[in-house]
Amino acid sequence: MDLHLKEKVVLVTASSSGIGRATAELFIKEGCKVAICSHNKENLLKTVQEIKLQYNLEPLWELCDINEPQDIENIVNVVRKNLGDIDVLVNNCGGPVPGFFEDLSDENWEEAFEQVLMSTIRFTRLVLPAMKSKNWGRIINITSLSVKQPIDNLVLSNSLRSAVTAFAKTLSSQIGKYNITVNNVAPGYTLTARLYELAVARGKQRGESHEHILASMANDVPMKRLARPDEVASLIVYLASEQAAYITGSTIAVDGGVIRSTY
User: Fold this and answer.
1) Is the dihedral angle over the CA atoms 220, 254, 147, 27 positive or is it negative?
2) Is the N or the C terminus of the chain less surrounded, counting Cβ atoms within 10 Å?
3) 209-225 pLDDT tens trace
């Protein structure tokens, strides 16, 4: 299937590992001009080198702390200068710190607010004018199954990613007339460094090994396994395609059937 994405300019945020990296790689395979970023220079350079070896090209890369408005503005300007206006924005970020409500301070809430919600708003604000002028654009936010089925010790993620979902739904109705779609992809338990960290934290809380926690997570999935990052990335790339032009304002789970609701 030709997704009609060749030469499209794509920015994937927080993309030195996990779902973000897998997404960037799939866009590269589609012939897109891809930019990646991370706040961790060592991880970012390692990823750039590995992508260069595998695909014989070097993606545009830039350090970016998505909690910092100036960093966000800087990378959008770098992409615009080197690749052109951004056609596809994939808003991704690491998860906020885990914890129950009474464990978390105002500082934790404020940091999560900047990391999850405000980074999405700031990136979107910067790319939207060019998308409107082209009468074409795709904004895809990576959220979590927690927006449909909250997870007990992830109150920050439950709250702020749900805010991203509401933001996207509202925005989609305002900019649909410009042929711009806004969607959310909600991954379930996916084999990433973030999931490993959550398993370690949960294991300490319960007095169990992280291996046991990961196995338990897999057992809770009807498909009896954890997702691969590329399985989530495949949906993201599809939502950027021409074939998905009539899908907007949606939140689609890639969770192996974990979410129990019927909608």
Assistant:
1) positive
2) C
3) 888 888 988 899 999 99
